[in-house]
Amino acid sequence: MSNKLIELFGDKLIIAKVKKRLPHLFQLAELESSRAGKIGMEVGSVREKIISSLLIYKFGEENVETELPITEPEVDVRLFGSSISIKTITGKEPVGVKLIWTVDAEKARQFLESWKPNCNLILVQVNWNGIGGVYYISTETQLQVFRKLGRERYIKLPKAGTNPRGVEISKEALKALIDDKDTKAIIVEWKKDSVDYNPYKRWVDLWKED
To answer: Is residue 172 part of a domain?
Structure first.
């Protein structure tokens, strides 16, 4: 399957489409997930569907499994039977990639002591009015960086006494993953369009149908 993702990131048609269409699609995702000008947490799920739809477009619906059990929280989609985690982050620097969402310090500590990378990663760095990208980081690359840095440097626990938003990949580990020679990247210029978007219109139109 890793060869399939390498194929995706080497496809000139796909690269051109991602560069041209992804900022617009993610802008729509933000508009659909916004209320009173603030973007809600659900934007992550919409972005995930956009990336999964790209895989379906490239490889066909029969080869992309999206209906996965909640017992596999890290896995967002399967391509030809192999597991992929889809992560998106926003900002100039690639930081804040969540491994798990938890407010429980003990669960976070247990996670640190037991977890290791176990699926391929598609990472999208959104950087409006700047440069970001889409990265494919294989399980093997993640494990190499994980072993090199060790658990304590690879995994960032929430600070004690704060309102923790989850356990993250450390900034050091994320930079090492993105910079690895085997990581594949599509560089994206994140520009917003002038979009007249009404998130209620399609639902109103459906109500109008007989």
So the answer is: no
The verdict on residue 173 lying in a domain is: no
In a domain, 97, yes or no: no
Distance between CA 168 and CA 53 in Å, rounded? 26
The encoded tokens of residue 115 equal: 């977890």
Residue 122 has a pLDDT of 97
Q: Give the CATH number for residue 196.
A: 3.40.600.30
| pTM, to two decimals | 0.91
* pLDDT digit string, tens, across residues 77-132: 999 999 999 999 999 988 888 888 876 777 888 888 889 999 999 999 999 999 99
* Residues 133 and 187 sit within 8 Å (Cβ to Cβ): yes
Is 165 within 8 Å of 98 (Cβ atoms)? Answer: yes
Please choose, from the candidates 145, 132, 144, the residue with its C-alpha nearest in 3D space to the C-alpha of residue 172.
Answer: 145
Token match 């390498």: residue? 6
Question: Within 13 Å, how many C-alpha atoms sit on residue 35's CB side?
Answer: 4
